[in-house]
Amino acid sequence: MERRILLIVLDGLGDRANPSLRYRTPLQVARTPNMDALASRGSCGLMDPIAPGVRAGSDTSHLAFLGYEPYEVYPGRGSFEALGMGMELKPGDVAFRCNFATVDENLVVKDRRAGRIKEGTAELARAVSGIEVDGIKFIVKEGVEHRAGLIMRGEGVSERVSDVDPHEEGVRVNKPRPLEPGAERAADALWEFLLRAHEILKEHPVNLEREERGLPPANFLLPRGPGRAPDLQPFGEKWDLKAAAIAGVPLIKGICRFLGMEVIEDPRFTGGVDTDMVAKFSTAVPLLERYDFVMVNIKATDIAGHDGNPEMKVKLIERADEAIGETLMDLSDVVLVITADHSTPCTVRDHSGDPVPIMIISEDVRRDECTAFDEISVARGTLRIRGTDLMPTLMNLSNRAEKFGA
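Given the sequence above, the corresponding structure tokens read:
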């Protein structure tokens, strides 16, 4: 009998030994009785989202998990971010992911996330959207918190320009450079747009009010990850599965929408630490009555890693475990997967190439000796796979795989 598949991705869950946690990982420290109980009923192990040592992005890892070879199809993160925000990508458009950031009068970055601004970004985006430079139109739309999408539209625009975001604070923003002949016009127009937008943003009422309140103004856009929409086979066609996804961050929603998956919207499904995990999981379970494959992304654990806050990461892991305990412990005829898209060690404050823990639970899966779900305990398990191995593995365990050969 064919089984349905539920994939839970705890974003950035993997970590490294942390001195403040007595050289344990947040997942080792967290009380996770429900995930531990599930681990004892399944196959556990470690997974390299892309390949050993490769620092995976959330976009490339999710593409791999869904069965697409990232090295062959990855178009750049910007296009997926824009799609996830509901922006329309036309043929020839180049899209960037952006941060609203705080810079000083010398364009030195003071805060890459403008204090994780949560209000007023829609007004800021509208104020700078529609600017034209040298026949190229720039379209801006707000995302979650400090995030935004930027589309560069015009004849002959190129995605081969360097990131403006320096990816650190205390340094000047990068002037975009052409990365190949023919990209000079796009790089020059992008820089001119950003300077014009900066003049508008720094005098915008939203930012003036923030400064009066002692908050960092969102006075500069930091674009990075330019890309065009790729040409990919829809997920449902590729695997013969009717699929749905639950996520809060535009990037993941954009990937899933582009692949033809149904994205379930709910204001409780945020891309922040305030996301309602119980609501996400309890929504996913009944979806399995109508869909063959459901994926749920929880961003919160990744945020704690980027913030370098192991104590917060422990608490968020425990919240996820409680939500799993309320909703996912007694599924029948379902292949349940719990894993991460990459490691985000609190000591690094960014993605790393460390493998991530994974467990797969179904009625007749081969049970190994793992009784705890953390990076060290699962190393004794039966699984050692790459991200692109995940869908074939799940197709097999759900009794949906086609026979190869006679």
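The chain has two domains: 4-74+231-397, 81-227. Try to locate this feature in the token string yourself.
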